[in-house]
Amino acid sequence: MSKNDSNKSNEIDQYTRNVLQNGLSRRSFLTRAAMGTGAVAFTGLTGSMATASTDDCVKTAKSSDGGATLEFMPKPKPISDRDIVSTQTFDVVVVGAGASGVPAALSAAENGAKVAVLQKQAIVVSQGNTGSGIDLANSDKAAVEAMVNRLMGDSAHRCHPELVREWAYNSGEAVSWVIDRAKKGGAQIVDQGTKVQHGIHGVTEHKLNFVTSYCGPKPYTTGDGMRDLAKVAEKAGVKFFFNMPAQQLVQDDSGKVIGVIAQDRDGKYHKYMAKKGVILSSGDYQNNEAMCNFFIPDLKNFERKQMDRTGDGFSMAYWAGGVIEPIGHTKMLHDFDAGPASMCDMPFLAVNRKGERFVNETVAMSLMNNYLRDEENAGHYSQVFDANYMEQAANWPGKLYSPEQMKVYMPEDPSPKIGVYESQINTYSANTLEELAVKLECDPKTFVANVKRYNELCKTGKDDDFGKPSSKMLPVVKAPFYGIHRRMRISTLCSGMLVDKNHQALDADGNKIGGLFVIGNLGGGFYGGVDYPLTVFGLSLGRCYTFGYLAGKYVAKL
């Protein structure tokens, strides 16, 4: 290795080095195929790769220009200038109008840029309700660093510390900015502060406070909030092009990204040139079955919450020279709608679809999917408790809802369903265990036998089956009995392309790809664990807001 190469290697941080070594880029794909390792590792290839020889791997992996072609990311077909019906030039082109793309566009516009936003759908699309950031003015630095350390631990210390700190030290400002601007567009958005952040207890002994934006109440969501924010962006001069899915990036001879080609509903191509940069914010790939099976095969039996998330941005960034994080991407599965969200992590008795107890219930809801991956359970389980829960679980973390308050989550109760998704509520009460089992769609005989066994363990104070602490073992003996049937569905996938602290995409050598920036759930480095952590309530949207805000400002000033 030359002296210059050695210096370059030393400048690359550990996270980036790992992604360069183990991530998926066109060059790394071909290298592994040529070494004979691709036949096993890259089962997503077009063709039958599982039994292919090394020579076949190389032949199959190579596209006409020597790049690698995966079945879920086909090489873009050349589009000639004569097929382009219109060309417009902007400073910044944003691909994807969601919780990161809309803030990025507005931030860029407020910093003097002429901005275009290309959106695949007919409207701005986002989901969720809560987006969070740290209130730096009312937090101790030691507490902020403790929060960073906890989030890194939540990601098994496999994330990029620099990106986590980018969120930690800029998120309060960014989330406050989103609240302020969205209100100007008529959004139903408020700051709930720190009181809703139940998961941060014990993270630090020092002062730590949050700005916690909330778009609601349901069925109003962040999607509505971002549509209202888009109104403000339009007044600031941002031009939105809906039903205009991006097809490929335009690069000059040096490889710099200088624009985007999109296709309208009539099949006609339009070119959007970008003087300063293209920001990809087109979301995850949960609706791309082949891509999911390749990067997160655990998801095979789970339902998807979203639509049209097909990994378009991944393909565009990959073919521009970008690097996708290694196999084993972070996933987010939860159910905050079947019953009170503040009770989702309370360690009540949990049973699967058969009615069997299957886990130590101190396992967080965000991790429950790992016990329910099989085809029969497919993410379904139920929390079960009795009439004594208000007294016996009073000191548990979270917030209990009284029987009266829970009626809004009960489809059988005639009371008005305000502040919930009526189609997703799934909480029941019954005077007998057998009756409750039927409502929870469990086998009554199996369910009753498992409750009986659990009650016996509660009586002894020793959980010989799963080891749950005695303080968290509440018997289910007094009617009425309650059950919350939760469905763990895929909300989003949280891993993506390799970027630096300014969200600029990096190539297989760790060099910046000129003109290309990646944010939102298309951007990598912020997470690293198997599952999205729920320590900070609203971290996902908070990250999207923050990195959109920062990237828009940065690219506008280039």
Automatic annotation (TrEMBL):
The keyword Flavoprotein applies. Transmembrane segments: none annotated. Keywords: FAD, Flavoprotein, Oxidoreductase. Pfam families: FAD_binding_2. PANTHER family: FAD-DEPENDENT OXIDOREDUCTASE 2 FAD BINDING DOMAIN-CONTAINING PROTEIN, FUMARATE REDUCTASE. This is Fumarate reductase. The keyword Ligase does not apply. PROSITE patterns: TAT. Its cofactor is FAD. InterPro entries: FAD-dep_OxRdtase_2_FAD-bd, FAD-oxidoreductase_2, FAD/NAD-bd_sf, Succ_DH/fumarate_Rdtase_cat_sf, TAT_signal. It comes from the Bacteria. Residues 91-529 form the FAD-dependent oxidoreductase 2 FAD-binding domain.
